[in-house]
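WARN no homologs supplied; continuing
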Amino acid sequence: MTTRGLRNNNPGNIRLSEVKYQGEIKGSDKAFKSFCSRAYGYRAMLVILRTYYNKYRLNTITKMIHRWAPTCENNTRAYINNVSTWSGINPDAVVEITSKQMMCAIVAAMSRVENGVQASRTEVEAGWELL
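OK structure emitted
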């Protein structure tokens, strides 16, 4: 069975909000955004992480995930540990926001946490190419 996030082409499980992203479509989900393709869902994740970095100075996996998956809703420490392990990036290392390799590794790992299945690196990189 496909997870909700993957059914919505929203591998980051981005909640509905006033912010509109490229490729966003009106879906039937009452809580989470839907995208026309998974690549656009990954693009939205990358855009959000860039915003965290540039606007809020959240420049590590630890800082980013604390905002993405707050402790009031998630086991944030486990989320951080999994993203760090699966991406191969120290949770407190400064993220190179312009590095395709680093950002795609982080987003793929986040998608794996959110959906319980390994992300398609091709789809993640297609999201990067849409930036």
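The mean pLDDT is 98.
OK
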